[in-house]
Amino acid sequence: MAAFTVHQAFLHSLLFSEASLVLHHAEDRKGVTLAPAVAMEEFRRAYVQLCKESGAQPQETVLQQLHELREGPGQSRLDFATQSLSVDTCRVLGKLLQDEILFTEIMLSDCMLNEEGVRHLLNGLCSNTVVKSLDLKGNNLRALGAEALGKLLRQNKSIRSLTLEWNSLGMWEEGFSLFCQGLGGNRFLQGLDLRNNQINHQGAGELAMALKCNSSLQELDLRWNNIGLLGGRALLSCLHSNKTLRRLELAGNNVPSDILKAVEQAMDHNQDRQTILAENHSRTRVLSKEVFSLKEEKAKQFLDLMDTIDKQREEITRSSRTSAARVGQLQEALNERQSVMNSLKAKLQMTEAALALSEQKVHNLGELLSATKQEQASMTECQLKELRQQKQEAADRETKLLRDLSAANEKNLLLRNQVDELERRCKAQQDQLFQVKQDLTNTTAELKLRAVQAEERLEMEKKRFKQGLEDVESLRLKEVDHMTHHMEASERSMQERIQRLEAIRIGLEEELSRVKAAAFAERGQAEEELIKVRGQARLEEQQHLDHLEEKLRLMTQSRDEAQNYCLQQKQAVGEAQAKVSQLTLQTEGLKRRVEELQQDLSGKEQEKVAEVNKVRVELQEQIGHLQAERTAQEGLKEKIAALERQLKVLSSNHREALLDKESEISTLQEKLRMKEAEISRMREEEAQRASFLQNAIMAYVQGSALGALSPRK
C-alpha cells in the first residue's frame, strides 16, 4: 500500500509538472509577438535606457555581446560567459529579466560577479517565468550568493537546470543552510551541479535533509568536494525517502567504496522505479481510454435498447388501435344484423296478423259457402289438379332449400374446424415466444376467439347478445389494462436491473486500480449479485409463465362454453326449422281450404271470387317475403365467410410480424451475449494487469528493502 501511495503521488506530481509546462509554453506563445531580432534590439534599447535612468554607463562589452546575439543563430540564449559585469550592470539586467520572455537559457560562467551584483540578478530572476537553464560557474559565490540562490529556488517556477560549479557555497554554513532550505521547498528543478564548492560533511547533511523534502530533482553532481564518510552516510540515508533522484555523482569526496556502491544501487532502484511508474502511467492512460470507450459503447447500446423498446411500444399502441377499430367495425356489423333481425321479426308479426285475419275470413266464408259445396264438385277436380301441381312445386322448392341449408351448415362446420385448427397452431407457436410476444399473441388470440364468438352469437336473442358483448368488452379492457401494467412493470424492473448492473460495473472499474485482493473481493460480490438478479429474473419469468398458463386454461374453458352455446343455438335453429315446417303444413291446409272455398264461391258471386283472389295474392306476397328473407340470410352467410377470410389474412400477417420480431430479438440477444463476453474478457485482462503491477511493485519494494539493508550488513 505504501508503494501504491508513492505511485499515486508521483503520478500527481508528473501531471502537475506537465500542466505547468503547458501553461508556461502557452504564456511564452502569448508573450512573443515580435520577431526575435526585433525583440533583441528592444532588449538592448531597454538596457541602455535603464542605464541612463540609473546614472550608470552602459558597458561596451555587454552591448557588443547583445549585438552579436541579435545577428547570431542562438537568439534564445543570453551568453555573458567570461565577461566582467559591474554591479550597476547586474542591477539593470536584474530589472530587465523580471518580465523578459525572450531568453530561456542564461550563461554567466566565469564572470567574477560581485555578491551584490549576484543578488540583484537573482532577485530579478525570481519573478521570471521563461528561463529554463542558469549557469553561474566560476563566480566565487559565498554567503550572500547562497542566500540569494535559496530565495530564487523558493520563488522561481521555471528553472529546470542550475550549474554552480567552481564556487564556494559550502564554506559558509548559514548561507548554505538557506540554500538547502530553498532546494527542499523547490518542486521544479531537475538538474543541479555543485562540483568544487568546498562542501563538507555538515553541508552534505543539510543537502540530505533538503533531498528528503524535494520531489523533483533528478540529477545531482557533488564531485570534487569534501563530503567524507559522514556526509556519504547522510546522503545514503536520505535516498530511502527520495525516490525521484536518478543520478548522484560523489567521486572525489573521500567516500568509501561500499557507500558509493550502495548509492549506485539506490540510483538503479530509482531509475527502475521511474521506468515502472512511467509504464504504469501509460497503462493507466490506456486503461482509462478503454474504460471510456466501453462506457460510450454501453451508452450507445442502452440508447439502442431504449429505441427498440419505444418502437415496440408504438407497435403495441398501433395494434391496439387497429384491434379497437376492428371491434368497432364488428360492433357496427352486429348492430346492422340486429336491425335486420328486428325487421324480420316485425314482418313475421305482420304475417301472423295477416294469417289470423285470413283465418277469420275463411271461417266466415266457410259458414257462407257450406251450402254451395255440392254445386262446385266439378270444379274441385280441376282445382285439385292445380293444387297437386303447386304442392309438387312447393315440395321441390323446399327440398332445394334444405339441400342449400345443409351445404351451408357443412361449409360452416368446415370453416369452424379450420379456425380451431389454426387457433391450436397459433397457440403451439405462441408458447415458444418471449414474454412480451406471448402477451401480444394472447391478446390477438383472445380477439380472434371473441370475433368467432361474436359471429357464432349472431342468432342469439337481443338481451343475451347485448349482455355477452358487454361482458366480453369489459373483460378485454381489463386484460388489456393488465397487460399494459404488466409490461410497464417489467420495463421498469429491467431498467432498474440495468442501472444496478451499471452501478456494479462502475464500482468494479474504479476498484481495478487498487490492490488485487480488493479487486477480487469486489468482483466476487458483483458475481453474487448477478447470480441473485438472474435467479430473481428466472423466478419472475416462471411466475409469469404460470400466470399465462392459467389464462390459457381459462380461455380454453371459455371456448368450450362458446362451443356449447353454439350447439344450443343449433338446436334452437332446428326447433325454428321444425316450427317453419309446421307453419308450412298449416299454410298448405289453409290453401286447400281456401281452394275448396274458392270452388264453392266461383259459381255464385264474382265478388267472392275477387276476395279469394286477394287472399291468394296475399299468400304469394308472404311467400315472396319468406324467400327474400332466405336470400338475406344467404347474404349474411356470405358476409360471415368474407369476415372469416379477413381474419385468416390478418392472422397470417400477424404471424409473419411476430416471426420478424422474434428474429430481431434473437439478433439483439446475440449482440448482448457478445458484448458481455467481451466485457468479461477485458475484466480478466485488467485483473491480470493489476496482478502484474502488484507483483512488480512487491518485487521493487523487496529489492529496495534488500538494497537498504545491504550496506549495514
From TrEMBL:
Coiled-coil stretches noted in the UniProt entry, renumbered to this chain: 341-518, 545-685
This protein's record includes keyword Coiled coil: yes
Broad class of where this protein is predominantly found: cytoplasm
GO cellular component: centrosome; plasma membrane
Keyword terms of this UniProt record: Coiled coil, Cytoplasm, Cytoskeleton, Membrane, Signal, Transmembrane
UniProt key word ATP-binding: no
Endpoints of the signal sequence: 1-19
Membrane-spanning parts: none
UniProt cross-references to Gene3D superfamilies, sorted A to Z: Ribonuclease Inhibitor
Cell compartment(s), UniProt: Cytoplasm, Cytoskeleton, Microtubule organizing center, Centrosome
Name this polypeptide is given: Transmembrane and coiled-coil domains protein 3
Organism placement in taxonomy: Eukaryota, Metazoa, Chordata, Craniata, Vertebrata
